[in-house]
Amino acid sequence: MEDKKLDLRELMKLDIKDIFNQKNFSKWRKKKIKKVEALPKLVVSLDFGSESIKVVEGRYQKNHLKIMKCITIPHQQCIENGMITNETKLIALLTEQLKAHGIKAKDAICIINSTQIINRELFVMPVDEEEMDTVIRYEIQQFLPINMSDYLIQYVVLDEVVINEEKKLKLNVITFPEKIALSYYELLKKCQLKPYALDLSYNAIGKLANYSNLLKGVSNEEGTLAFVDIGSQFIDLSIFNKRNIQFTRLIKSGSTAIENRVSELSNLSIKSTVSFDQVDLYGEDVESRAVVAAVDEMIYELVRVIRFYQNKVVGNSVDHIYIFGGSTVIPGLADYIGLKIGIPTTRLEKLTGVSLEVPDENIPFYANAIGAIIRL
Known about the structure:
Layout: H1 8-11, H2 16-20, H3 25-30, E1 43-48, E2 52-61, E3 64-74, E4 79-80, E5 83-84, H4 87-100, E6 107-112, E7 118-124, H5 129-141, E8 151-163, E9 166-177, H6 178-190, E10 194-200, H7 201-211, E11 224-230, E12 234-241, E13 244-252, H8 255-266, H9 270-273, H10 286-312, E14 320-324, H11 333-341, E15 345-347, E16 354-356, H12 363-372
Parallel strand pairs: 1-6, 3-16, 6-10, 11-14, 14-15
Antiparallel strand pairs: 1-2, 2-3, 4-5, 7-9, 8-9, 11-12, 12-13
Helix pairs in contact: 7-12, 8-10
């Protein structure tokens, strides 16, 4: 049975229970899609990363976002590349830590990312809505050797363009493994939480950028913004133009790569010798030089992917970069990246329109979890 067309924006508003429908996706495909409205009560937003879970408790009501608590739960390698590898241990850890930190909300938002969740741009001939799924599935199978029955296929029409004198639709398409989505649904239920919504990291940061009007301060308000989440094992790059997602990639790099590189170059572990917030990018000591070498390698990979985006279509550009994530505590990292890449770069440290009952310094670490609470 073919999937129904589902606008990407609608996907991120869905109640996760409607998507999974008690593990029976075929029944869900027969049902009318139901939007999730913003809950006036507290929700807990969980951003599942490679080394830890970023947890935010807050409320989005009447277009106003209020954040009460932010905590980090190291999960001791219970998650790898977005896939749960030790459910039993993760359930015990998450349940214990939520209780210990006084998290009272039961309605849970889940934010995940994985290299198995594939986001691609497609150009297809305009067809009737009923035929679009068939066309998209055919196009995807030309470059992705996957069993389509194991994936949810979602898309949104970004633009109408002319290529070689032919009118085509520009689509943003997501292939989402059902088994990954279902595993998090079951995890939340076993932690005595109510699955409220499923979100992807780029969608969460996009909502936060729109809500906080991060385009202000960029010289060209119609320009293109890149958001770079530097995590432990991956750099999550998301590029937006005119408030719409244009490009996303997970880059194999991050704080772990920096630590490993430092260990190789200095025969010392950065965890035991240097804290990121004490690194001098212009220092001459062995540890600082090792960190700089590792950061330069990370920037090289980032530049390579940004250049790929820029070269895809004539006129593609990036006007401003926002960085966030744990590694961004390195003093002067934003300026250093901006100088190396040649694009103005800012650490994401301020948000407008958000009531915070936690210090502003939490923003770079919890941006995805904060953004996911917004239900537009």
